[in-house]
Design brief:
Layout: H1 10-16, H2 25-29, H3 31-38, H4 44-49, H5 52-59, H6 68-73, H7 98-101, E1 109-113, H8 119-127, E2 133-138, H9 141-154, E3 159-163, H10 166-176, E4 181-187, H11 205-214, E5 215-225, H12 228-239, E6 245-247, H13 273-280, E7 286-292
Helix pairs in contact: 5-13, 10-11
Bound molecules: S-adenosylmethionine (SAM).
GO molecular function: tRNA (guanine(46)-N7)-methyltransferase activity
Keywords: Methyltransferase, S-adenosyl-L-methionine, Transferase, tRNA processing
Enzyme class: transferase
């Protein structure tokens, strides 16, 4: 079995070759192997009692995040979907002072769009201090406040969350960042199931074009969803950029794809919360990873 990291440019590799149980690229490829080694498989009777929220807590146990935020600010209640086309959300946000936000704003940047709780990105930031900066876009203010609370608690200086509609604010924010943009992830975006609401989906042509334009050559885009229709939609948009993007299995066949062209494994070394819940329910995760041509 080959090495997943070989398909990934050197400047991205350390982003994904991370925590001790995930040292070997092969282990990163095989999420089930990773899970089995980190968390012994529960016996059936135990398994019935385990809820997916507990699996999320276990996945992020390393972070040791307190629930002080909930005690101080109240619980974060999540409404199903926010309508990003609401007029108040169509206003671009102010560009942050990057020098105030990051210790070193010239480091390579990873952007996560629709970051949810932010724990996925915080986990990556904690693995790579002084190597990478991380920026999370999230449209629900309370999630952003809680994520920033955790960032302060962990004293991380390489991660920032913005309360922003990515469709409206991605380009202007990222274009002012002093360092190179090396990776953009869009993971389990809100599916907005009804056809008449598809225009609310975060992945739209202008955002796709901005991402492709903003990435450095060799930079990557990782998308996934547990909803086939939403995954196909993202895939169509990024496949349409094939003159500028190549799917990673074309560069390295060890980035295994199934017969339908979906990546078999999560290459990030950590799962997102939605991914954990969906896998717990037995859903398949549809993944694609693209690289900008040199
Ligand atoms: C289903 S959740 C997935 C969260 C996380 N990526 C995961 O996989 O666990 C989708 C997230 O995207 C956020 N979101 C939806 N539209 C957005 C937009 N236009 N800009 C920024 N965030 C958005 C939602 O508020 C929500 O937190």
């Amino acid at each position: 079995m080959g090495c997943i990291a070989c398909a990934i440019p050197r400047f991205i590799r350390s982003t994904i070759t991370v925590s001790p149980p995930l040292k070997l690229p092969f282990q990163i490829l095989c999420r089930r192997t990773v899970s089995a080694s980190v968390y012994p498989a529960p016996r059936l009777s135990e398994r019935e009692e385990i809820r997916s929220t507990e699996l999320v807590a276990r996945e992020y146990a390393d972070l040791n995040l307190s629930d002080k935020f909930c005690q101080e600010v109240g619980h974060v209640r999540i409404r199903q979907h926010v309508n990003p086309l609401r007029s108040t959300l169509m206003v671009p946000v102010e560009v942050p002072d990057w020098n105030g936000v990051y210790d070193d704003p010239t480091l390579p940047l990873m952007v996560d769009i629709g970051t949810g709780s932010g724990r996925f990105l915080i986990w990556l930031a904690k693995q790579n201090p002084g190597l990478r900066n991380y920026l999370g876009f999230e449209i629900r203010p309370k999630l952003v406040r809680r994520a920033e609370y955790w960032v302060n608690e962990l004293a991380l200086k390489n991660i920032h969350f913005v309360y922003a509609n990515a469709t409206v604010s991605f380009k202007q924010l990222v274009s002012t960042y002093p360092g190179p943009l090396i990776l953009v992830s869009i993971l389990c975006p809100d599916p907005h199931f009804k056809k008449k609401h598809h225009k609310r989906r975060v992945v739209q042509k202008p955002l796709v074009e901005s991402i492709v334009e903003s990435l450095v050559p060799g930079g990557q885009i990782f998308v996934q969803s547990d909803v086939l229709d939403a995954a196909l939609d993202m895939r169509d948009y990024f496949d349409a950029e094939s003159h500028k993007l190549v799917h990673v299995d074309r560069i390295n066949p060890d980035m295994l794809c199934d017969n339908e062209g979906w990546l078999v494994n999560n290459p990030m070394g950590i799962r997102t919360e939605r991914e954990i819940h969906a896998e717990f329910e037995g859903s398949k995760i549809f993944r694609r990873m693209y690289q900008k041509q040199w």
